[in-house]
Amino acid sequence: MIPKEILKKVRRIEIQTNKRMTEVFSGGYKSIFKGRGMEFSEVREYLPGDDIRNIDWNVTARTGAAFIKKFEEERELTIIFLLDMSGSTKFGSETRLKSELAAEFVALLSFSAIRNNDNVGIIFFTDKIEKYIPAARSRSHILRIIRETLFFSPEGTGTDIHEGLHYLNTVIKKRAIIFLISDFITKYNHEHVMKLTNKRHDLISVLITDPAELEFKGRGFYRLFDPETGKNKIIFSGFKKSRELFKKKRLEELQMIEDNFKAIGTDYIKLSTEIDIVKPIMQFFEKRKRRQH
Predict the structure, then answer these.
(1) Domain-terminating residue out of 74, 96, 123
(2) Domain total for the chain?
(3) Domain check: are 115 and 186 in the same one?
(4) Are both 46 and 106 inside the same structural domain?
(5) E strands along the chain, which residues?
(6) Are residues 194 and 207 in the same domain?
(7) What is the pTM of this model?
(8) What DSSP character marks residue 48?
(9) Are both 41 and 100 inside the same structural domain?
(10) Could you give the CA distance from residue 30 to residue 5 in angstroms, rounded to a whole number?
(11) pLDDT per position in the chain (293 positions), as tens?
């Protein structure tokens, strides 16, 4: 039996999502994600002007007349979320945690997907694979994904993106749209497997951030706890120089993450706990539209 408070929270996020889904769906989802490609439909007799590269030589040899293969766009998509559930995502200084921001993103894109008759699945990972929910298409399936995204309790605390992507490439055989959602705070190298995944699938990185990761709200001593390693560190924020160094270091880390995305060739969306998620998603759609045209 699912506790009432969990059901209420899932229902609340569904209502909030429905209010904004039309904007996202009509604003780019349908036109940006057009399908896996061209699927064989049937053969028909060759007509002058047809592309000779599409001639079906087996049927032509068997019948004695030229036949070509007819293709149609394969409309149905598979959306897979690869979601970081590590300890650092359970942080948030504003109205929500980074993990709650990720859940909002998953909900919004999932409901847009089933509205378009697409299949949705999710893989939860930390420094290990935590759970895999294969792709399906129904409202109850999406509500299950949202519930697990909000309340699943992982065993691991670290972040191993390489492990997550390696597992995904093993279980997802057909080309899919992959949303890799993480704060990308990790000690493991993952650039090579990201390149490989981006060749096999349409990989989109979703970077989740929080403003407190850039600067302190007040002045004084701060005990910083790393939920992934369990280590503590004391920082004094009373000096302007120490605050500037802290911010500079984090900005450099974020820039390096974004530079890696560009070097790998993966598209990315940058989300913050202090900003509504619709705007950066729409900006992402617009950027893709311009590139396609």
Answers:
(1) 74
(2) 2
(3) yes
(4) no
(5) 37-45, 67-74, 78-84, 119-125, 129-136, 177-182, 202-209, 221-225, 232-236, 267-272
(6) yes
(7) 0.78
(8) T
(9) no
(10) 34
(11) 456 666 677 777 776 676 666 666 655 676 677 544 555 557 888 888 777 878 888 888 988 888 887 755 555 789 999 999 998 888 877 678 899 899 989 998 998 888 888 999 999 999 999 999 999 999 899 999 999 998 899 999 899 999 999 999 999 998 899 999 999 988 888 999 999 999 999 999 999 998 877 766 656 555 555 555 666 666 655 557 766 777 788 888 899 999 999 999 999 999 999 888 888 988 888 888 777 65
Q: How many helices (H) and strands (E) does the chain have?
A: 9, 10
Tell me, yes or no, whether 104 and 184 share the same domain. Answer: yes
Domain that holds residue 281: 4-33+76-292
Same domain membership, residue 237 and residue 101: yes
CB-CB neighbours of 124 under 10 Å: 21
CATH number of residue 282's parent domain: 3.40.50.410
Instruction: Give me the residues paired with residue 214 across strands.
Output: none
Residues 142 and 182: their CA atoms lie apart, in Å, by 20
DSSP letter string, 177-235 = EEEEEE----SS--HHHHHHHHHHSEEEEEEEE-GGGT--SSSSEEEEE-TTT--EEEE
Backbone phi and psi for residue 271, each to the nearest 5 degrees, phi listed first? -115, 150
In this structure, are 121 and 228 located in the same domain? yes
Question: Which two tokens mark 78?
Answer: 């598979």
